[in-house]
Fold:
Amino acid sequence: MNRPKGTKDVFGREQKIKNYIYETLTSAVKVNNFQKIETPIFEATEVFVRSVGESSDIVSKEMYSFIDKGERSLTLRPEGTAGVIRAVVENKLYTKLPLKLYYEGPMFRYENPQKGRQRQFTQFGVEYISDASPFADVEVILMANLILKSLGIKYVLKLNSLGDTNTKTDFSKALKNYFLPFKSQLTPESQNRLETNPLRILDDKIDSQKEFVKKAPKISDFYSEESKAYFAEVKNFLIKSKVDFEEDANLVRGLDYYTHTTFEFVSDSDNSGAQSTLIGGGHYQNLVKEFGGPELSGIGFGVGIERLINELANVSEEEIEDYPHIFVLNIAPTMQAETLAIVNMFRENGFITEWNLKPTKIQKAFDKAAESKAHVYVIAGEKELQKGQLTIKMHNQQFTVGIEEVVYEIDTHLQEEHGGASETN
Ligand code: HAM
Structure:
């Protein structure tokens, strides 16, 4: 029996890269003071239909929907924003603002699988809910920027504004009128979009290359004065924060809830394959209200973990490997309980600790220690243990210390090795 098409088993090196990515993501949300939220993996289908939008690819053809035994229509979440906003409103989490939330987990879209595109994939996302502010938009973009920079991934930041609700409505009408005479020259998919969501014709892979599409009306002509000023501020703050970006008037994004700022971080390396958007996000002015909450804005992004894994395919073992700090050489057959107590003491003090489970001759234990790539070897010899002592071997030094001092001694040596910072704190 095989795994379903578009899914993955993640283990070995890939799993280590994934953990390494999570460490960076966790640190980015920590320094930005975001709190974690968990929402169900399935929601009422309506949650996605009403927010992501009926005309979107996601809702119209990619959802894993099913009727449960109670005759309810449920859907495996294709993205994180809708469920989070549903939870924010249902639990009235908006009493203290700004509300800064992050989430991660599997998402499901019935897509054609290829490199970087799966039917079950992992998203890490953030949602920042407050009164609308270009500062919040920039904060969130800076956070995405920090993540890719910390991982050493090269990218291009594409930026656009969809204006407010009126902008989108007026622009849709204008596009429809403009494209109607060219209808027969559009792909069958775009011909449908002409009725449902003409904006999506602009970012269609095939149609976007056609001359008449390039000459289509521009969304910027439909901005209100406020939308124009809002977007100008976002760009200005980004420039002041020294973040490079490219304006892309065709960046309409595939989810209906966006207004104002939209952005994508697109890979600039050869590792990504055809699917090069690493992080996608934007501002949504009406979503909280549409779910029955107060008039609040949100801005957020989703990052595809598998796409980051592809980007880091060539990362060195040293960077992703959590080698043990300590290997305890288990060589005293009559003192197994004492040796395990030593192993446990190190673990309780925060050291990643390994040992050879069965007592062996010292040379064999050394071989095991070398195999583990631990930084420090602790030799738990029978005579030493009887005297309440241990022998430590690290780098070219070897010394014997009392069991009470051993944690302090190793910590001090490791601090010296790493130029000051404690490994255990
Ligand atoms: P999205 O652009 O649909 O936005 O997805 C965000 C990211 O998820 C993409 O840039 C990509 O890295 C990853 N992704 C999407 N589909 C797949 C797939 N089939 N296989 C692998 N990775 C995939 C959203 O989902 C919005 N909820 C983002 C957001 C949050 N906007 C505001 N707040």
Q: What stands out?
A: The two ends are 45 Å apart (CA to CA). The first strand starts at residue 35 and ends at 36. The pocket of histidyl-adenosine monophosphate is lined by residues 79-81, 109, 111, 116-118, 121, 123, 125, 127, 254-255, 277-282, 300-304, 306-307 (CB under 6 Å). The first helix runs from residue 12 to 31.
